[in-house]
Design brief:
It is built from twelve helices and 17 strands. It is α/β, with parallel strands linked by helices and 368 residues long. α9 links the parallel β13 and β14. The radius of gyration is 20 Å and the shape is globular. The structure holds cyclohexylformamide and zinc ion (ZN).
């Protein structure tokens, strides 16, 4: 039993996160105790804090963790004390989708990652009054000094010398954008791509599209600083969308037909519609934004010309394959993700939320 600091989401609280001292139990036979040193803040954590995801509160969120294995349960193989790890989502490992390399579509994805408890219903955290606090969020709950992790959530990172605050966002945001470009849309060399939203997911899609050899990468966002960053990371054209004319500008930039591929990462229903409207015939749009109650409106006629609308979860491929793929490109200077990261002490997590909401920060990473 250890004591540690954690950011807890509680119902009806004014701030999304409350800093508390919690206790954490020893790992069960099938768990890995990880000492987290960094965790990225993702929009999904804010949806959890707001009670819009199927996650019970109070809970320790955080699903882009990086750190070091402290101890392993007796039944755990493949990890040992001292291993550096990145934490992503959990999966069962035995269903058809897991076995075919698409573990994000495991039928247990939502209970395992958003249920925030062990499969027997228990949790390993207690607050100062001895009351249980939900954990195992994405098999990690990394907005805390330690987490009782599911082995399926962990990816070894011993081979890299990148600091943990750079590794952490590989657990979700970075591979969500990059994997959609490579594995879902399969962006081809010479093709045209529009990215709606220059947050961490959108900018990762930009870097992935550049690495895939896209000829035009058009990025739209209302924040000029984010558009500057997009240009730095590989966008060939940037469009300020404050005038609401993103689709018209994309058509002008492509000489009329629209783009071969679009990536929507804003989570706004009207932007999702624009991502479809900006497609050339036979084009494909990937909807990645998290908007639990959104409906997508599109012209049905647009689909007659072979356009497709699709979407993916956390990169459409096993993180244990995708994370090293990004790290390999990073090592060759072709995926400079540091440029979008800003670090905050875990104590300042609510300030990080304000900065992400205002657009002042792109990817906030908490350092513990
Ligand atoms: C989530 C988005 C909602 C579906 C599950 C995966 N991605 C992580 O932030
Ligand atoms: Zn996420």
């Amino acid at each position: 039993m250890n004591s540690m600091k954690a950011a807890v989401c509680r119902p009806d609280s004014e701030d999304p996160f409350a800093l508390e001292e919690l206790t954490i139990g020893d790992p069960r036979p099938d768990e890995v105790l990880v000492r987290f040193t960094a965790a990225g803040l993702c929009h999904t954590d804010l949806e959890v804090a707001a009670g819009r995801m199927p996650t019970p509160l109070p809970v320790v969120a955080g699903h882009e963790g990086a750190g070091v294995v402290e101890a392993v349960g007796a039944a755990v193989t493949g990890f040992g004390p001292g291993d550096r790890v990145v934490a992503s989502f959990s999966y069962c490992g035995t269903c058809r989708n897991c076995l075919s390399g698409r573990p994000a579509y495991c039928p247990f994805h939502f209970p395992l990652n958003f249920g925030a408890r062990r499969t027997d219903g228990s949790v390993g955290l207690r607050d100062a009054s001895g009351e249980p606090v939900h954990d195992h969020f994405f098999g990690q709950s990394s907005f805390a000094g330690y987490g009782l992790c599911r082995p399926s959530s962990l990816i070894k990172a011993d081979e890299t010398d990148l600091p943990d605050h750079v590794l952490a966002p590989l657990g979700c945001g970075v591979i969500t954008g990059a994997g959609a470009v490579w594995n879902l849309l399969k962006v081809q060399p010479g093709s045209t791509v529009a990215v709606f939203g220059a947050g961490a997911v959108g900018l990762s899609a930009v870097m992935a599209a550049a690495a895939a050899g896209a000829a035009r990468i058009i990025v739209t966002d209302p924040h000029s600083a984010r558009l500057d960053l997009a240009a730095h990371l590989g966008a060939t054209d940037v469009v300020d969308v404050t005038d609401g004319l993103a689709v018209e500008r994309i058509r002008e930039l492509t000489g009329g037909p629209g783009v071969d591929f679009s990536v929507e990462s804003s989570g706004k229903p009207e932007v999702m519609s624009q991502a479809v409207a900006a497609l050339a015939p036979l084009g494909s749009a990937a909807i990645l934004g998290v908007a639990p109650d959104a409906d997508l409106r599109t012209s049905a006629f647009a689909l007659l010309e072979g356009r497709t609308v699709t979407g993916s979860i956390v990169g459409h491929q096993a993180p244990a394959v995708l994370v090293p793929r990004v790290l390999g490109l990073h090592g060759r200077g072709r995926f400079p993700l540091e440029a979008m990261i800003r670090t905050y002490a875990l104590d300042d997590i609510n300030k990080a939320v304000d900065d992400v909401r205002s657009g002042a920060a792109v990817k906030a990473v908490l350092v513990h």
